[in-house]
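Margin note from the TA: students keep mixing up input and output lines. Inputs are the sequences; the output is the structure of the whole complex. Example:
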Amino acid sequence: MADQDDDRTLRTAIERLRVKPGSDLVLSKRATDDDFGMTKDEALERLAETRSRIDVLQQRLYAESRRSVLLVVQAMDAAGKDGTIRNVLTGLNPAGIRVASFKAPAGPEAQHDYLWRVHQVCPSRGEIVVFNRSHYEDVLVVRVKSFVPEDVWRRRYGHIRHFEELLGDEGTTVVKVFLHVSKDEQARRFQERLDDPEKRWKFRAGDLDDRALWSEFQSAYEDAINETSTADAPWYVVPADSNSRRNMAVGEILRATLERLDPQIPEPEAGLDGVKVV
Amino acid sequence: MADQDDDRTLRTAIERLRVKPGSDLVLSKRATDDDFGMTKDEALERLAETRSRIDVLQQRLYAESRRSVLLVVQAMDAAGKDGTIRNVLTGLNPAGIRVASFKAPAGPEAQHDYLWRVHQVCPSRGEIVVFNRSHYEDVLVVRVKSFVPEDVWRRRYGHIRHFEELLGDEGTTVVKVFLHVSKDEQARRFQERLDDPEKRWKFRAGDLDDRALWSEFQSAYEDAINETSTADAPWYVVPADSNSRRNMAVGEILRATLERLDPQIPEPEAGLDGVKVV
């Protein structure tokens, strides 16, 4: 992928994954299996290049210590949240990267508004933070399973837009990816986990209950994405049936985000010219 | 380093870096330039192997989600804290690794006891956390610069032993490394930072003030290490004049810690035999 035209074509394809504000996303019209015209090996090679580039940009972001990046990762089960995070971020300096994973709120988390625990683990200056699940669960599973009434979860879209606007205004670039897997591919992956003794511990009988609510979850995702994909905190719908292309695409999105920020190594202290250490 | 004898010899050499309780460490008698009988390339190759092994053990620790590891990294300036952390941890899954960096306490941090902010960022179950500086600064720089009176910092050795005992009892294995650099090597590295326009931003004139207090810092390190190197939360004095051997040695220490823990993939849920996903 040294070719400039290929690079431009790929960037355009990735940019098409973005959900433009007001565009009324319909998930069933979005591909789950786009290969971006790449073989698996080409996708792996491209991701390796992208990681090197992200590494350089991350070091600058960390040295600059002025701005930060928040990447939100959401998906149905088995779409590959863990695998994506591992493959895109492995190789970066752990001092500048942090992954925050959200489970069902418990203890003090459950005694506060749903953004309280999220706010606490937002990136500090210079950091890239990845959310494995996020505050979006509070308009997804919470809605589908009726944990709160509709008038409560409906107001949350506004909270979330405002919260992410605050983050953006104060120096944190927010970007969000939905890993879009097909229902058939999910079945295949669940069955693989069940049938492989090394992987079975990852499977919970409850995973099948969520699968039974597939269309309700898809609707909840559509609404959440349509309501919160803003110019400054966009959602990308990433085809996730192929692991290699999914990882490649998420790498591209993170890289493009960092390139737009264009972080700079800070100026040295004044008065250091000619200093000799004794 | 496929040879079993070489492996045993190295493990023994690494184990000799440990400060046994009651052994009365004298830093000037500890090497800063031990090469462990390895060339630079051999050290790099060994670290690459070690990282792969740590990766496997980390995945098990994360899957097990029952215990955790805290690696404390302390050193004089330019001994290579950042470089060590980067080189030992890069390549691991960022979802199971976290680096906590401590600067001078400010705001609410300064309004609590010195272990308050430290406790908050200790590892959760399944995590490996690395402290870049730590609560030890509260018996090091705080002592050398007389930020608190002697009767205050002297009591802290006991607090720290008890705090680390709590962590150990509750499932967190604590291991601590002091990156031991010579005063000459520090001078060489400072000068290099000053002379290289790409690195100069890392240098602060205040770094020279700390260098002027070299022997006071060495004494403070000796006392802190002697007072807190316990059987369950040991200190290792790692020769740090060579970056490649330093990184290799810290990798060995982390690997050996994880091997002793021997984390296990959990058992799958019962009742999943023969389940078919539809």
